[in-house]
Amino acid sequence: MAMPHTLDIKIPLPPGPLANYIARALSVDPELSKDSVLRSFSCSQDMLEIHYSATSARMLRVAVNGAFESVRLCVSVAAELSPEVLDMELVESGVKG
Fold first, then answer.
1. Could you state one GO biological process linked to this protein (predicted)?
2. Do the beta carbons of residue 40 and residue 7 sit within 8 Å?
3. Helix or strand or coil: residue 75?
């Protein structure tokens, strides 16, 4: 089946292995609509990259919304388990104290 709708997402994350951890955690969950949506993860430096292909714009939107929710959850868990990982990024960017 043709997948004419594509989207590449690049999400910057704090220095360290967080991008790789998130990619590994999310890649084990298959897409709910396997026939309509294809997804792949990769990491380069501190960037999480997600590539989507879908049969329709609607299917792409639904899949991407789910991905952002999952990434948000992973970052929240990382912040709870290891707050210094995200605090370091905020200090370096001048956002915090």
1. tRNA threonylcarbamoyladenosine metabolic process
2. no
3. helix
Residue 9 burial by Cβ neighbours in a 10 Å radius (0-12, 13-18, 19+): middle
Nearest to 71 by CA among 90, 97, 45, 43: 43
For domain 5-93, give the CATH number: 3.30.310.50
**Helix 18-27 with 57-81: angle, nearest 10 deg:** 130
Handedness of CA 52, 53, 57, 58 (dihedral sign): negative
Residue spans of the domains in the chain: they are: 5-93
pLDDT level of residue 15 (50, 70, 90 thresholds) = confident
Q: The tokens 């329709």 sit on which residue?
A: 56
- Type of residue found at 24: R
Report residue 91's pLDDT band, with 50, 70 and 90 as the boundaries. very low
What are phi and psi for residue 17, nearest 5 degrees? -85, 5
Query: What is the mean pLDDT of the segment spanning 59-66?
Result: 96
